[in-house]
Specification:
This protein is α+β, with helices and mostly antiparallel strands. The protein is 53% helix and 13% strand. Strands 1-2-3 form a 3-stranded antiparallel β-sheet, with helices on one face.
């Protein structure tokens, strides 16, 4: 089925040096090298933990952009074609297109 979720469903959370799915508890990833626990690792962990929510938000934008195009909004002025192409590329990269 197209658009079927193949990743571990959210919500995800950062727990120390790991990203985990909250319910049921499941390991997703380790953040950074064991010898490196810096601000960049922490930021990467927060970004990874937000991935399911970001994907949902991204998916929600597609029908809005398509509706604006269908309603006759100026595609060039608003950059709608480019936004739709970027959104579709991101969804495809995530395996959720």
């Amino acid at each position: 089925m197209a658009g079927e979720t193949k990743h571990t469903p959210g919500p995800w959370a950062q727990s120390g040096a790991c990203v985990v799915a909250e319910a049921p508890l499941r390991f997703i990833a380790t953040i950074g090298a064991p010898s490196s626990r810096d601000d960049e690792d922490a930021a990467n962990g927060r970004l990874m933990a937000a991935a399911p929510d970001l994907l949902s938000a991204l998916k929600a934008q597609r029908p809005i952009i398509v509706a604006l195009i269908d309603a006759g909004y100026n595609v060039e002025t608003w950059g709608l074609a480019g936004r739709l192409a970027a959104l579709d590329a991101a969804l495809s990269k995530s395996g959720s297109a």
